[in-house]
Amino acid sequence: MFLRETVIKKASGEYRYWRLVKTYWDKVKKKVRHKTIKQLGRLKPNEIAFFKDSLAGKAGKRFSWAELTCKKSFEYLAVAILHRIWKYWGLDALMEDKTIEALTINRSLSPESDYQVSRWYEETILPRILNLNLNPTKIYRTLDTIPALTSKIQQHLYAKINSLGLDDYELVFYDITSSYFQQSNSDLARYGLSRDHRGDKKQILLALAVTKKGFPFYWQVLEGNTADTKTVQEFVDELKRLFNIKHACLVMDKGMVSITNIEKIQTENFNYCVTLRRNSIAKLKGVPWNYLRSINENNVENKKDYFIRHSKRAYYKELPSCENKRYILCFNPEKFLTERLCRLDKIASIVKYLDQKNQQLSKALGRRHRELLREELTRYLEKRSASNLFSFRLIAKEKTFRISYKVLKKAVADAARLDGVYCLMTNLKTASPKELIDAYRGRMEIERSFHQLKSFCEIRPIYHHNEDRIKAHVTVCVLAYLLNNTVKHLVRQKKDFEELTAQSIYNYLKSCKLVELSASGEQRLKLTVPTDEQIQLTKILADKSLLEEEGIQQLLPASTGAK
Predict the structure, then answer these.
(1) In the chain, what are the domain boundaries?
(2) Which strands, in side-by-side order, build the sheet including 31-41?
(3) Is the bond preceding 111 in cis, omega lying within 30 degrees of 0?
(4) pLDDT band at residue 538, thresholds of 50, 70 and 90?
(5) Are the C-beta atoms of 538 and 547 separated by less than 8 Å?
């Protein structure tokens, strides 16, 4: 065997390629012929010398185990793939400051405080990829610049979702969640309705819009006590101003619904599909109240046949339209049983609480104050959302009182008639009820977005006090969710990977690391042997070059490369 060089001349220059060739005797043509064993591509002088020496039988360098040193290991494959996803979105061209990429990849894989990110960064291959020195001071300075870029980022993502063919804007899902502070003196930090059940903490609100497949393209940080309904009109204006969206259907939850908001949406020629509050359902015409009252735990399987079946968890009946609004009454048998049993359990636990309270009062030695006791009981019932289900009065008994209470059976029956029931309202004239239900159920995508932001990107608790850094923190978290959602979306399109989450994908990838080896003055990077799953995922999310020797050795610093 021997090396053969091929020279290709082009206008741009001369290119030399090498291949390994074997000599053999062709028995048919009775002559010596050559056969290419392996295309080697371009080779460095030291590599050419190595092959020639090996083919000539000359001994190469040998290292003893004592000489071989493992200098450092780096988190590699998951990081390198997310770097490719960042470039896939064109974010490297949009933002010159590579610190934003490092912060985002950290939030996707291993969320750290902004102060600790530089420590994590040095344990990954990112310094070799980004050629960036990172420290806490640089991170904080970068955070201060992000709010000024947010609108530009949002417009970029909006255009990219279309150009990459990832989704369209036929349906836009919009909702709000809260995220609490550990402590903060910022004007954004306010006490308000906490979706995290942390009413003891100040919070901000995050308004978020995503596509059907969960790709975020708009977000805004609001004061923590902002009412949901007050955000919709500004959101509609921003859709026009930032993205020039002319037609879309806004899918929102009942917390966003008000007469003013619906009028605003229609004025801007948008469609909407929203759910109604239960007190609004009670005002609609055509609701089959007698039928709903007749449903109970024992006959629910038979009674659901009154509705048209959409799926196992969704049955529907279209109600009469009114003022160009359509109403789709929906029934979920599983939700019916859950809500009915929860209410019965709640009533039983409140009765138990009141009976125990009476026992405590009967043993009281000191005088009890009537109004303080009344206020305590009122607060308890409000906290249990049961003020309308119970009535009580305090009967004086020497120095103390006895609580005389009653379960309001009519109120319980009125509440029970809407168990498992919800109602959609829309101005879409041609969409079928099934399409509308599918649109509403797609709203779960934004719930998943919030879950990702809180559980995996760890958007909460927030530690910043500076308003710009609070907004920057949110933007980094949203970008991390974008990367996560992209990874999940690309992988789930392939057979046998349909059930993987972003986190399970990262778990597969994280064990593939780079190790820096040193012996006799030479240094090399060695990849831990990739598993079959890691190879497949790499091909889906990037390309196999991430696992190839030539690309890996290029990550060595120039001064310490292999000789």
Answers:
(1) 2-55, 335-416
(2) 2-10, 13-26, 31-41
(3) no
(4) very high
(5) yes
